[in-house]
Amino acid sequence: MSNEPKNSGQAVWGSKFGYLMVAAGAAIGLGNIWKFPYLAYRGGGGVFLVVYIAVIALLAKPMVEIETTIGRKARADAVTAYEESCGKKTGWIGWMGNIATIMICAYYFVVGGWVLKYGFHFLLSGDFGADPWQYFNNFIAKPVEPLIWTFGLLIFTLVFLLFGITNIVEKMAKFMMPALFCLLIFCSFYAVFSAEGAVEGLKYYVLPDFSKFSIKVFADAVTQVLFSVGIGWSLFVTLGANLPEGDNLRKSAVMVDIMDTLAAVIAGFVVIPAAFGAGVDVDKGPSLLFGVMTDIFARLPGGRAIGSFFFIAVAFAVISSLFSFVEISARIFEVKLGWGRKKAMIIYGIGMAILNAFVSLGWGPMSGFKLPWVDVTGVAWYGLHDWFDCFSGYILLPLGCIVTCWAIWKGMGWKKYEEALTNGGKFGHLSLWDKIEIVVIIPAFMIVVLLNVFGVIA
After folding, report:
1. Pairing relation of β-strands 371-375 and 378-382?
2. What is each CA distance from 21 to 27, 65, 132, 185, 347, in whole angstroms?
């Protein structure tokens, strides 16, 4: 088989390191640095961390292997990849992943815009007033300014992806990801050793108290892995389409999972000890990163410079993730709808800008606009961000994992899957444990998440 993907405009990755940096960049983003710290803070600190690492080992590794194998075997967009690897009737799995990706990007660009705003503000002045929490709330409630940052990020992403993810984007990732890790490590040491009360926060984060474990903690850890690593929504199917035949997919999956987990854990070392020491309410949730870090940096000598470094690091993570997220939809639209690269980018950009506008305004002028969420306890009303986040993260991604496991088991079959995953046995064989993970463990985890989100178990 040729090393060239079937999409003639796409090429293989320039190097193994380049692929790993783009794949890690896709996995490492707001999920690690924005969402993981507040979920871990809310979920009992150390016990959440233990559950998260266990889920990474039992869920993330096999799912990254599965999705990458499907992508490399077909060398096409996500829809075509499922059709050609697992059977003609499985293409809808790629479409479902595309819908999940669009819903995630609907708020991801908005929050990414906040990150850019804070990074530039730290560079320009670093003055967030007497109350950084009030500054944050006032900013996101504005009708225009958040949209300017959001649309700027959207345009930047689309322009670079016009040249293909294996060209300029790969070169940028080779710089951005090592720089991200360096900046995060630097900030974590600074936060742990400089913030008042950080030692107690560090204990809370790394010493598990299993009395705090619950089904909700487990479900949050599972969905965080799905969102953070990027599984269940065709991300690694899309990236895998550009991998050369000789690559060891199992080794690559381990490397991606390790880098993603390290980024999340290090981000927790930055945010949680600082937040704990400051006595911040865990219900601050998504605003935790912006409020806590600005407050802490404002108190520290050289805080403006450290704050600039920190938010630049987060911006790197946001941009590297968005490159891969948008590529999922762009490649499907480009090939399956026959739009071509440029037209796909333009139409995607217009549609995404509209969604971003509604989500952004939902924190301000449209804060009264709610969508219904039905579970066994009745009807709740969520804003657009919360509704998109819940529907994509707690329904579409778990369903995506379940049907992908089914497609491997019943569509591709064990023999073909083993051959594609291991390069015909060159990199080992499919074990009984591998099959148990795919048929039993992963679907069981997903069922727990689905039952939890609809209030059946708590």
Report:
1. antiparallel
2. 10, 17, 34, 17, 28
pLDDT of amino acid 29: 73
374 bridge partner residues: 379
pTM: 0.89
Express each pLDDT in 52-96 by its tens digit: 999 999 999 999 999 999 999 999 999 999 999 999 999 999 999
- Which residues are paired to 379 by β-bridges? 374
**Nearest residue to 352 via CA among 114, 113, 156, 103:** 103
In this structure, how many other beta carbons lie within 10 angstroms of the beta carbon of residue 375? 12
Q: What is the C-alpha separation between 206 and 192, in angstroms, rounded?
A: 12
**Whether the predicted pLDDT of 12 surpasses 70:** no
CA–CA gap between residue 284 and residue 37 (Å, rounded): 11
- Report the alpha-carbon distance of residue 127 to residue 218 in Å, rounded: 39
Token pair of 288, please?
């935790």
Q: SS3 for 319-375, per residue? A: HHHHHHHHHHHHHHHHHHCCCCHHHHHHHHHHHHHHHHHHHHHCCCCCCCCCEEEEE
CA distance 357 to 215: 35
Q: What's the alpha-carbon Rg for the chain, to the nearest Å?
A: 21
